[in-house]
């Protein structure tokens, strides 16, 4: 793992429990993998830089999620519990209000917006040089996230993917996701997204 001054890591996830009030197993697996990556990275650097880690959590509300907060806020709570004392070395950049951020494309757009804002602030302050972001997800989802980045978000730099240890999603989930992505590429994303959010819980 390359040593840098500041680690930036984003967790892409939005699966919920059966009752919709807790994180789903896939999301927990990705959060725990992010925590493991952060701990490994912190062991390789002196803890003189603060914050040493920026954690980006973008998911809003949608799908099966019935929680009162955004999904990202629930993910932050889970990660804080897992990080324990090491939370003091981290800054969470969490979507607390934007409910409509509920797809891979929407999550990555939100993350890019936050990264762009922080990059601009760092240029003004001349204090911290921001590196590209690591994205935590599973191997199947990473392929789709990579396509989205290259075609729709070419200005978003991805340092690399960190893979969680979780079962692969069902084949139909990825087929539906690629169909939705095709609609976005054809310019019909504004039509398909409201229908997806209404009738599809994933």
What this model shows, in words?
This protein has one domain (about 5-170): Rossmann fold, CATH 3.40.50. The protein has about 200 residues and is an alpha/beta fold. The chain has 6 helices and 5 strands, in the order E-H-E-H-E-H-E-H-E-H-H. Helix 1 (about 25-40) packs across helix 2, helix 4 runs parallel beside helix 5 and helix 5 packs antiparallel against helix 6. It has a 5-stranded parallel β-sheet with strand order 3-2-1-4-5, sandwiched between helices. The chain is globular, with a radius of gyration of 17 Å. Strand 4, helix 4 and strand 5 form a beta-alpha-beta unit.
- In what range is the share of β-strand residues? 5-15%
CATH architecture verdict: 3-Layer(aba) Sandwich
Helix percent band: 40-55%
Regions with little confidence, pLDDT below 50 for 5+ residues: none
CATH topology: Rossmann fold
Distance between the termini: 33 Å
Summing up helix and strand content along with how strands pair, one would put the structural category as alpha/beta
CATH first level = Alpha Beta
